[in-house]
Amino acid sequence: MSVFTPVTPEQLSPWLAGFGVGALRGLHGIAEGIENTNYRVETDSGRYVLTLFERLPAEALPFYLELMLHLAQSGFPCPRPLGNEQGRTLDRLQGKPAALVTFLPGAPVTAPSVEHCAAVGKIVADLHLAGTRFGRRLPNPRGPRWWREAADAALPTLSVEDAALLREELRFQSLYRFPDLPRGIVHADLFRDNVLWDQGKISGVIDFYFACTDVLLYDLAIVANDWCIAGDGSLDEARTCALLEGYHVNRPLSAIERGAWPVLLRAAALRFWLSRLADYHSPRPGELTYTKDPRHFRDILRLRVESHGRATRLWIAPLH
Description:
Blueprint: H1 9-16, E1 24-29, E2 37-43, E3 46-52, H2 61-73, E4 91-93, E5 96-102, H3 114-131, H4 144-154, H5 160-173, E6 183-186, E7 195-198, E8 201-205, E9 212-215, H6 216-227, H7 237-250, H8 255-281, H9 295-306, H10 308-313
Antiparallel strand pairs: 1-2, 2-3, 3-5, 4-5, 6-9, 7-8
C-alpha cells in the first residue's frame, strides 16, 4: 500500500502490455498502509490496482490471488486478479513479484455507525461462507508462534509496565487454542480502510494479503476492535452487537463461540500491538511510507483484559 519500490510509466508500460488492458494513461502511488507497494493504474480500458509484494513469502502469493479470484467469481465484492497473455496472475516487475487487479469504486468510512457495523458483519459472514468452497488452506503466518517471535524482538524496547502486560498476555493466550471452534478462510485484516462504501452500501473488500485459515470468530474480533470502538478504545455496545447480529444472520454463532469471544478480542489486540511494534522499531525505507502508533493496540489490549467479563455480555440478542 505504501510505495517502497518506485515504478515509472516507462517501466510499467511494457509489463502492462501483456495484460491486454490498453495503453497506460495514469500511474499514482497509494500512500496508505505498510506492507506492499500499491499504485492506481489508469489505462484505455479502465482503472486497476498494481501491487508489488515487498516481503510476503513467494510461496504464499498464489494462495492470496487464487482466493481473490475464487471470491470474485462467487459474487463477493473484492478485486479480481487479471491474468497476462501467459495466463499468470503473478509476474515480476522491478525485481518484485507483482499483480494487477480490478479497481473497485467507493471510499472507506472513518466513523462507522450501527448500520455500517451490521453490514460489515453480514459481509464477513459472506466471506467465511464463500471460503468454505475454496480448496486451499494456509495456516495463519501471524499466529501464536509469530507472536512469541515478535514479542522476543519487542520486549527490549518496552517499558517495564508494557513488558509485563505483553508477557502476561502471551501466558494467558497459551492456555487457549479452541480446537472445537469453526475454522476456515479469514481476512485477518478487515479494518475500516479495507472496506469501500458507495452510496451507503459496501462496494468492495480489499487487501487480502493477510488472509489465511484460522478461527472464524477471531476474524470478527479483529473487526470489532477497529469498527466498534469508542473514543477511549472500549467496545461500543450498540455497534458491537450490531456487528455480531449482522454476522449471525448469515452464519449463526454458537454458545461455544460466545465463551471464546473475550479471549479472541484480546488475541486480536495482541496480534496488532505486536505487528505495530515490529513496524515501528524496524521501519523500511520508502517514498510514501508511514508507521502506525503501537500504543493504540496496547491500550485496546489493556481495556480488553480489564473488561473480559463484560465482553461475554456483548453478544447476539437471542443469548442476552
